[in-house]
Amino acid sequence: MSVSKPKLAVWKFASCDGCQLSLLDCEDELLTVAEAVDIAYFLEASRATVEGPYDLSLVEGSVTTPEDAERVLQVRAASRRLVTIGACATAGGIQALRNFADVREFAAVVYAQPEFIQTLDTSTPISDHVPVDFELRGCPIDKRQLLEVISAFLVDRRPAVAGHSVCVECKARGNVCVMVAHGTPCLGPVTHAGCGALCPSYDRGCYGCFGPAETTNTSSLDAWLNALGVPDEDLVRMFRTFNAYAEGFRNASARAAAAAPRGRT
Ligand code: SF4
Ligand code: SF4
Asked: Which tens digit of pLDDT belongs to each residue from 160-218?
């Protein structure tokens, strides 16, 4: 008797596709994944699709249109487990910068005929719309963590993805701290682990592409960065990148914006 394999679906909302590419980038492991699951819906990889329901859905991207606000409800209803992947899906992405401004002004600057653009005033994470079983962070996500998440959900266990900061990975690699040794501003102390401390390993400060760690003390880091000569208006820009709308970074940038001189943010 043949046993049917669990059905995997990969969905795209507002995003650059980089996190879906991380799955395709698992060159050595992709065949093993394909043996373990039925890749039932993954338009980036194949036009052939299989109808739901799906055992595991990976969702990339944020909600930026009324149609997507509807579609995400259908995706949730068709999925036994739903995991969001990447900064767009977990925090609204770089496109959530509109949440701090007027999206119509942005559209007028970018598009020759902005009247054709139909978009919501905000870009919001998937968890603002439907219950989510797990959030995998990163811009883009780390493929080793993605494989761990897929393996874990296939056997109904919690993924072993640590919630600590990049600093822990940085020390585990034996790096010299760029902030202490060279005075280079680094968001490692408040950023979620997952990249293996990539930037500090090349003597650069972390710019927070994995979003906030599970517990962060951004106000303490603000004081350190101010002492290194980073003014509050630059702190606003440091926290407002790919994960600007993630709660920890959102609060930090709001605090820095309130402290910065008027008209400088
Ligand atoms: S370089 Fe950055 S990530 Fe590494 S220990 Fe220093 S502050 Fe933390
Ligand atoms: S060190 Fe920071 S900015 Fe660099 S890849 Fe890691 S999380 Fe992203």
From this structure: 999 999 999 999 999 999 999 999 999 999 999 999 999 999 999 999 999 999 998 99
Taking the centre of ligand 2 as the mean of its atom positions, its distance from the CA of residue 212, in whole angstroms, is 11
Q: How far is 239 from 228, CA to CA, in rounded Å?
A: 16
What is the Å distance from ligand 1's center to 195 Cα?
13
Is 0.90 topped by the overall pTM? Answer: yes
Mutate to test the pocket of ligand 1, among 165, 170, 217, 221 (most ligand atoms within 8 A of CB): 170
Q: Does the Cβ of 170 fall within 6 Å of ligand 1? A: yes
* Largest separation between any pair of C-alpha atoms in the chain: 71
Rounded-to-integer distance, Cα 87 and Cα 122, Å: 15
Gap from CA of 236 to ligand 1 centroid (Å): 20
Tell me phi and psi for residue 181, to 5 degrees: -80, -35
**Strand partners of residue 9:** 41, 57
Residue 259, sorted as left (phi over 0), alpha (psi -120 to 50) or beta, turns out to be: alpha
| Residue 58 pLDDT grade (very low, low, confident, very high; cuts 50, 70, 90) | very high
Residue nearest to atom 4 of ligand 2 (CA): 199
Segment 205-253, tens digit of pLDDT: 999 999 999 998 999 999 999 999 999 999 999 999 999 999 999 999 9
Query: In whole angstroms, what is the distance from residue 81 CA to residue 37 CA?
Result: 14
Nearest atom in ligand 2 to 191's CA: 7
Cα(50)–Cα(231) distance, rounded to whole angstroms? 53
